[in-house]
């Protein structure tokens, strides 16, 4: 007997909830914001819009389905099942937060605040949730490329947008950089770290580095296998070079980094709290991940 589908609604604590939790009451939060030139009314209205969207999506789940909710901070403790249909209600970044915990389950991104988000990953409105849920198993989906970092001690990290490798606090990182299959060329570097990103990441942090650099590299599409990498602020010295500072990784390509500092970290999608811890002599390889994010674009019969 097969289980009914389970709709897993992913959301995050709102800024209003965080303020009230920190200051104790609505009035104290309002006083705190007013002292800094902000109005709690605008924050509270955004909170109401987010909760209305979440309630509308929850009400759209078919009555014969199971339903679960998970807050962003609990994602690493939540067990997703193969039959789950994941509905992310919030911002684009929330889709990236959940991506690494999935294994092919369809993801529906619902924009909780239309007009505030770019809508790169949260492409739908709460009003469309019923049709999207009913047709999710047969829906057209984009298979978005992901990036992974694997250390020589088996530590592994997966991300949807990008992986950053560098020193804690973004101070000077020292390491040796090479590309697999590049004839053994290795360069010692001192820099602000290395960024390796996907086509999805090319709409965010990766794009800002690419634009600032005036790079001639072509930004990949989110579904392409290729990745881009950039070394941030490489420092030339008698002991460190700047010849390997940017490039493209094909589907099987790997960027290799051997640590020459007391401590470096690798974290994905801006989440520094979930990082690989690397120390002297360790090597980490970064490249395309076999795992992909299945992001629902639309259901059959709907434009």
From TrEMBL:
It comes from the Bacteria. One of its GO terms (molecular function) is NAD+ kinase activity. The keyword Kinase applies. Keywords: Kinase, Transferase. Gene3D superfamilies: Probable inorganic polyphosphate/atp-NAD kinase, domain 1 (3.40.50.10330), Probable inorganic polyphosphate/atp-NAD kinase, domain 2 (2.60.200.30). The keyword Kinase applies. GO terms for biological process: NAD+ metabolic process. This is ATP-NAD kinase. It comes from Streptomyces prasinopilosus. The lineage of its organism: Bacteria, Bacillati, Actinomycetota, Actinomycetes, Kitasatosporales.
């Amino acid at each position: 007997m097969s289980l009914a589908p389970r709709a897993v609604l992913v959301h995050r604590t709102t800024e209003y909830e965080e303020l009230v939790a920190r200051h104790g009451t609505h009035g104290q939060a309002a006083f705190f914001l007013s002292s800094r030139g902000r109005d709690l009314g605008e924050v509270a209205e955004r909170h109401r819009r987010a909760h209305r969207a979440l309630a509308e999506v929850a009400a759209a789940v078919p009555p014969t389905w199971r339903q679960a909710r998970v807050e962003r901070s609990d994602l690493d403790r939540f067990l997703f099942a193969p039959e789950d249909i994941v509905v992310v209600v919030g911002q684009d970044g929330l889709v990236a937060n959940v991506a690494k915990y999935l294994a092919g389950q369809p993801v529906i991104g619902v924009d909780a605040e239309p007009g505030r988000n770019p809508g790169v990953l949260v492409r739908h409105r709460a009003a469309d949730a019923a049709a999207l849920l009913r047709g999710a198993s047969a829906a057209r989906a984009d298979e978005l490329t992901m990036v992974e970092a694997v250390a020589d001690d088996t530590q592994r990290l997966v991300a949807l947008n990008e992986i950053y490798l560098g020193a804690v606090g973004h101070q000077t990182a020292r390491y040796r950089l090479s590309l697999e299959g590049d004839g053994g060329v290795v360069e010692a570097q001192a820099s602000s770290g290395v960024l390796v990103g996907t086509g999805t990441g090319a709409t965010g942090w990766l794009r800002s580095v690419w634009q600032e650099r005036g790079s001639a590299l072509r930004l990949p599409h989110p579904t392409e296998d290729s990745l881009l990498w950039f070394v941030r602020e490489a420092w030339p010295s008698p002991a460190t070079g700047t010849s390997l500072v940017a490039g493209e990784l094909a589907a099987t390509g790997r960027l290799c980094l051997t640590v020459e500092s007391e401590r470096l970290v690798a974290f994905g999608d801006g989440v520094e709290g979930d990082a690989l811890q690397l120390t002297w002599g360790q090597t980490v390889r970064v490249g395309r991940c076999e795992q992909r994010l299945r992001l629902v674009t639309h259901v059959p019969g709907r434009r």
